Amino acid sequence: MNWNIEIGKQISMVLSVVVMVLMIIKYRKIWKENLFFVVGYILFSLIDIFCYFYFKAMNRSTEIFFVIGFLMIVFFLYLLYYYQLLYWPLLKKLQLILLILFVVNIVVMFYTEDDLLHRFSFNMLYTDILLLLFSIILFLYQTFNSDKILELTNYLPFWISVSLLILFIGSIPILYFRTTVSEHIYFFILFMLNLISNGILILGLIWNRQNKLR
To answer: What local confidence, expressed as pLDDT, does residue 76 receive?
Structure first.
């Protein structure tokens, strides 16, 4: 498969910039309820862009930026985002447990993984994704059993959840088989997932008209 990996990365970065610009333009409407996600998304996008140019300029490992910035801080912000969104007492308690498990997992990984800060841990990534997926399930369960179901088109957290589901559920198989598929196929699939995920975010940001928290 003849896929230009560099062009794919550059297109993905441009899409991330478009999403960030839309978030800034609509900050008055979306930041109050979606602050943790917005901060997490912008942080990850900036890390990704910075590491792309840093590696090209310095040819040095960027693992530490992804381990600390993405695996630890960004995922924590995403989990905190769903903790904020949940208002059913039982679901909020379950989400708190997921947050605690996230912190425990970081501690465990420091003891079980060799040189965690300088080597990207896929085991940690899989655990982070699993916790995030559980969080999204709790949120969707609450949403589909509330009056929010009547206004899903205008409900940005729903679009964010769909975007994250597509990105991370779709990523699991290709990440797991990353050593058995060609580099071009691997990056093409990740590019397509990123394209679809960001496309959904852009639609959600454009259609969103909510102005207040529940």
So the answer is: 97
What percent of the chain has a predicted confidence (pLDDT) above 90?
68
> In this predicted model, what pLDDT tens digit does every residue of 8-20 receive, in sequence order?
999 999 999 999 9
* The predicted structure's pLDDT at residue 115: 83
Q: In the 3-class helix/strand/coil scheme, how is 107-133 assigned residue by residue?
A: HHHHHHCCCHHHCCCHHHHHHHHHHHH
Q: What is the pTM of this model?
A: 0.92
The answer to whether the beta carbons of residues 62 and 51 sit under 8 Å apart is: yes
Residue pair 174/190 in contact (Cβ under 8 Å)? The answer is yes
Nearest-angstrom CA–CA distance, 101 and 22: 33
Q: Is the pLDDT of residue 212 over 70?
A: no
For the stretch 22-52, what's the b/e string if a residue is b when 16 or more beta carbons lie within 10 angstroms of its beta carbon? bbeebeebbeebbebbbbbbbebbebbbebb
Q: Are 81 and 43 in contact (CB under 8 A)?
A: no
DSSP string, 42-100: HHHHHHHHHHHHHHHHH----HHHIIIIIIIIIHHHHHHHHHHH--SHHHHHHHHHHHH
